[in-house]
Amino acid sequence: MNRRKLQLFCLMAAGMLQIAGCETGSDAQPDPVTQIRAEKSNQDKASAENRGTGRDYIFQDSDKKLLTEDNLSNIDSRMLELARNEIFARHGQVFKRPDLKDYFAGKRWYTAVADYNGSLTDTESRNLKLIQKHEKLMSANQLEKLWDVDDHVLGYPQGDESIRLPAANVDLNGDGTVEHIQMNLIRHNEVSDEWNLSVNDTELTIELSDSYSTSYFKIVDSDINDPYFEIALEDSNESAQFTTEYYYYNGHNLIHMGTLDGLTANALSLDGKGTVTTSRQAIDFQCWFYLETFELDAEHMWKASPADYYPMEPPTPWVAKVRFPVYKTSGQHDILKWVEPGDSVYFQGGDTEGNGKIKTEEGTTGWIQVKDGHLAGTDTDIYDCFEGLLLYG
Fold first, then answer.
1. What is the reported pLDDT for 164?
2. Which residues form a coiled coil (predicted)?
3. Residue 307 C-beta-side C-alpha neighbours within 13 Å
């Protein structure tokens, strides 16, 4: 099978992975399809004095004012959990879980009260119940493995997205002032929809594929130790390739942070410490997915943090159709052994430089290489060298 046919198979198969977006309720993916048409001035960077200063509260007045659906419907499950515990922390709740203990210990307003009995005001109790309602609504829609043959094919189960709203009222930059976020459909085109995303008086025009029902945004917290909440838009093009667009608001402008592969606006992908894990598709040795890490840089932009090796989990069984060499080390040509036609091997993963790791049936582990589309040591296209290449279809 040649490369063009394999790519077509991959795209057709990926289209079968129809999944709806919602983030996880636990503690607390390849060409970009979103075109951002924003003024160049919107690429201003946040002021240095706001870097790393953190924010005081998820919801500053949840002890005095009733929260509404506009405050909660679009925000991430990790933020909901922190907002729920924030209510108790104001009274000095002593936290046993290390992450919560460390988080609230870093708040200048928090003082532990050993004998706090858990009592709340009526306003706090009502806010607690509303937060718990939204945590429950999202708990069933956690990012999950979709296919047993590839642990890195990730998506959401089909879920009810009616809890998402096209507008929200949330403090995005931690200055204590609530922003109004709004998303409106401007125009429906043949393969995409044109949207207006606004924060207060700042507006962006965004194109999203009409093959994925994205009529809402998500508010996430990429790093719980900085002032910002981020706006995330998950999208899928006509080939069912998933991406997530990220923005933050610096008090004046909406800043585009980057386009990441996969559906990442969830607490499973975002660790809350400035790192996100994305599921990316590779078409080299076979059609497969691997997990890649991005980190927030000093300008609050997503920057790739590539690995030397990405595992295929579980390994893919192949049967050799040609004789080819297995090398001792990645990227080198020191031959470990030869694999003969009819021999069974297992593809275990690879890197982004055309090097793949395989394991033979008798247990020998070594490397193969792709050069100009051919399996190194042969004159054969990589996709004609094996039976059993993983195809999503």
1. 76
2. none
3. 14
Q: How many C-beta atoms surround the C-beta of residue 26 within 10 A?
A: 15
Burial 353-381 (b: 16+ CB within 10 A, else e): ebbbbbbbeeeeebbbbbeeeebbbbebb
Handedness of CA 51, 54, 59, 63 (dihedral sign): negative
* Confidence category of residue 240, pLDDT binned at 50, 70, 90: low
Grade residue 264 by pLDDT with cuts at 50, 70 and 90.
very high
H/E/C letters for each residue in 229-266? CEEEEEEECCCCCEEEEEEEECCCCEEEEEEEECCCCC
Q: Which of 243, 206, 184 is nearest to 38 (CA)?
A: 206
Question: Amino acid letter at 294?
Answer: F
Distance CA 29, CA 14 (A): 12
pLDDT at residue 84 in the model? 98
Q: What is the DSSP string of 176-245?
A: S-PEEEEEEEEEE-SSEEEEEEEETTEEEEEEEETTS-----EEE-SBTTSS--EEEEEEE-TT--EEEE
Q: Which residues on neighbouring strands pair with residue 281, listed in sequence order?
A: 289
Order across the sheet with 202-209: list the strands: 36-37, 202-209, 192-199, 179-188, 167-170
pLDDT at 73 over 70: yes
- DSSP one-letter code for 14: H
Task: State the DSSP code for 201.
Answer: T
